[in-house]
Amino acid sequence: MNRADLVEKIAAGTKLSKADATRVLDVMVGSIKESLKKGQKVTLVGFGTFSVSNRKERTGRNPRTGETVKIPTMKTPKFVATRGLKDAVK
Asked: What is the pLDDT of residue 30?
């Protein structure tokens, strides 16, 4: 499923226009991004939790040259599915 498919499902399920469903999706994704930028967790009951994790500095290897490269510390988004979502996928 891609973004357009999701917009169609939202529009059909809520009887909104596709334009309104697109705005709903944009606001939801934007809100999640803003919360993660602030370092906050976003929990959607029955779906999962979005959070930010810190990756430590580490060394990697350039696959072309074989040269070792220092990979800096960075923040990365993380998603953990709830048990209900995991069970639904089984």
From this structure: 97
Which mean pLDDT values do the consecutive 10-residue runs of the chain (90 residues) have?
96 95 96 96 96 95 94 96 94
Domain that holds residue 3: 1-39
Q: Is the dihedral of CA 9, 14, 19, 25 positive or negative?
A: negative
Q: Residue 15, by phi and psi: left (phi above 0), alpha (psi -120 to 50) or beta?
A: left
Contact 60, 68 (CB under 8 A): yes
Question: What CATH number should be reported for the domain holding residue 69?
Answer: 4.10.520.10
